[in-house]
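Input chain follows. Return structure tokens only.
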Amino acid sequence: MQLILASNSERRKVLLKEMGLDFDQVPSFVAEAGPGECFCPDTTLINASRKAEDIAQRFPDALIIGADTVIEWNGAVIGKPADLADARRILMELSGSTHAVVTGMALRSLKQNIRVDFAEYTRVTFKELTPSGIDQYLELVHVMDKAGAYAIQEYGEMLVEAIDGPLDNVIGLPCRRLAEALNACSAAAMSQKYF
């Protein structure tokens, strides 16, 4: 069965390649649920589902992977920054505190009647940041397309004090859980061939 990543994310593409998977990348541009509409994990699950279902309509024989990652902090969802000033504000708010990174995953295949959804959590504790340290980080890393205004794989040591949970989830794809789900989908698809 053809496997399609319904995302334009270079980070997710790299993680899937590291998993040894053969896949195509077909980004979905459906409207995403924003922080004002709902809280985690609903936001990530809704967005991942919208992306996967959008691409599944175009490729009904394939197995589609949809994903969405957001930051949950103090009961609020922190998405991508609107501009650099917003990025500075977000990083200053996260300074010296612990937040959750939540990635919602949706697997869809119309032909195989596959519909799998799950969310993975990782807790990330930031160091006490200074305005000059934040400016230095923002000069090194393009953060405008990143939830929480940071990329842990790019100079993350400048920001992060501790991580509790899967690191790859913070990057954008919980690989172990995804591998388990893909194996289950594969087994289900194979069993359907014999009935």
